[in-house]
Every structure is written in structure tokens, then in C-alpha cells.
């Protein structure tokens, strides 16, 4: 079952029942626990690991202004969080150029991080050789796109993007090494997927989430704009998740925990007048958190910093109004522009890029 497929958020709650969505999220968390928990591989390296602040999320634009050649490999080198961040940023540029979802980068890096914790990563020198590491990143992205996108990239395309540094056969060989090392467990529930499904849950439960003390006498307006509210929250949560992929320490948190804290941070920014925020928070806790959720450390604060940086760059005010549909739509557009803008229609021939 592919947990990463996009689901439509229905403000009327007609797409799925609340109970069914809670069961779906429970199944996703069970899948996460059974085979997709992150492993802190960098702290087991000989060199001391230092926390790296998230790099700015790259804007979209012409390929020749963004998609620079891969850095020239230098051997030997010990891979660290800085190397990882640079390659994540490179992956974002590739998917933006190909008009793929940025969720594919999250999936690719989750595969990469788990691969680097396996013995195969050491025997293939991926953890010590920058050339092998870059090749592993490309193979991870190549695999993630095949899993998550309606179109695939050819190894020839990736070889061309690398300016011929890596041959197509090398990319395919590294992909097979990765697949075997991960035992073909390559479909983890992503933080994006947890976020989407949780928002669908909130939308389906919207009538029960209206505040009992609501005296605005505009319930019709409240439900008319509910989809706009969830879409705004989703945009705010998404920029946090995209920033989290760049940050090694955040990537060591569970995808479900990242989604929870990203949503809670978004709720703090959006004007939720008329809603019972306590009930919303309780439902999200029930859906996404373990009993040990107080041990998430700096995760919520680091995500909040990412959110504040992105909303400040977009010129947003807080709290965001829910009553004016134009305000919500315009704010959503602003955060997309800051992250890189809405995706253009996918090319019918990505492989010819």
C-alpha cells in the first residue's frame, strides 16, 4: 500500500470517515515503527558531528541558473551533515526543474539515510568517499522518483545532469546496491503523507471541531472556508517539512512526529477563530503521537524557526485570517513563491530535458 499518494482534502468531510482516517494513520505509524525508523549514523562516525542549521530552500528558476554541476569529488573525505545538506539542496533543484513533487526528495533522503546506516554503505565507501556519496544520492533520487512520481527519470538524464561525472550504468548499479541493502523496503510513510492524511482527518471531523463558545454567528462562512483553512495550514506545514529534510538532526525524528509539530506550529500562525483548537490538538495527538512524545527535544522549536524564516521572507502577517478567502489564497501563493512557486505542468517528456 502506497501511503504517499496525494489525497484530496474535502472540507465537507465526505471523502473518508474520521474513523477510517484514524485507522489509516495508525497503519502508517505501524509501518513506520516496523521498518522505517531513522538511524543516527553520523554520530557513529569517527569525526565529531556538528548541528547544521537548515539551508535556505531553493527558488525555482531557469536550469542554468540553479542546477549547477555536482561538486568535483575529492577522495577520501568523511561525509558529514554539511555534505548531506548540499546534496539535499541539489535534489530540490533537480525535482523543481523536472516539475516533480518535493516530497520525492524527502523520500529519497529517507532512503539514503537508512542506506548509510547499513554495512553496504561502508563496503562501497559511500560514507568516506564524496564521489561514492554523490552517486548514492543520485541513485536514491532515481529510485524515489520511480516510486513516487507518474514519470521516471532515466539514468541517462541523471548522467547528463552530472555533466558525465557518473555513467548511467554506475547509477543503476548503485541503485541495486541500495535496494538490496534496504531489502527493498523503499516505501516509508513520509512526513508529507502524515501531514496530508492528518489534514484530511481534520477536514472530515470539522463539524465536531467548531468551538462551543463560538459567538460569531457565521457558521455558514466557517464551513464555506474550511478547505481554504486546511490548505493554508498544509502550505505552512509543508515548508517546515521541506526545511527539515535539509537538517540532519530533524531528519532523525520520526516522520509522524515531524508532521505533528509542523501542523501544531501552523495552527499557531493561522487565525482559528471559531474552531476548538484544543480539540484539534487532541485529535492530532491521538493520530500521530506516541506516549513518549515529550522526548522530541528541539524538534518543535527548530521547525518553528524554519516556519518563521519562511513566513517572514514571504511578508506574511500573523495570525492569518480565515474569513477572507482572498487573504488565504494570497498567503498560500506567497509561501509557494518563497519556496519556489507553484509547480508548472509536468513535461510529457521529462527524459528529454
Task: Report what the structure shows.
The chain is an all-alpha fold. The protein has 16 helices and no strands. The protein has helices at 18-35, 63-66, 81-98, 103-116, 119-123, 130-148, 155-161, 168-181, 191-204, 219-224, 226-246, 248-251, 255-269, 277-288, 299-314, 325-339. The longest helix has 21 residues, at 226-246. Mean pLDDT is 78; it is low at 5-15, 45-69, 219-225, 321-338 and 340-353.
| Coarse shape | elongated
Query: What is the string of helix and strand elements?
Result: HHHHHHHHHHHHHHHH
Mean pLDDT: 78
Approximately how much beta-strand content do the residues carry? under 5%
pLDDT below 50 for ≥5 consecutive residues: which ranges? 5-15, 45-69, 219-225, 321-338, 340-353
Percentage of residues in helical conformation: 55-70%
How would a crystallographer describe the biggest sheet? none
Structural class: mainly alpha
Rounded to an integer, what's the Rg over CA atoms? 20 Å
Cα(first) to Cα(last) distance is: 31 Å
The total of beta strands comes to: 0
Give me the secondary-structure topology.
Elements: H1 18-35, H2 63-66, H3 81-98, H4 103-116, H5 119-123, H6 130-148, H7 155-161, H8 168-181, H9 191-204, H10 219-224, H11 226-246, H12 248-251, H13 255-269, H14 277-288, H15 299-314, H16 325-339
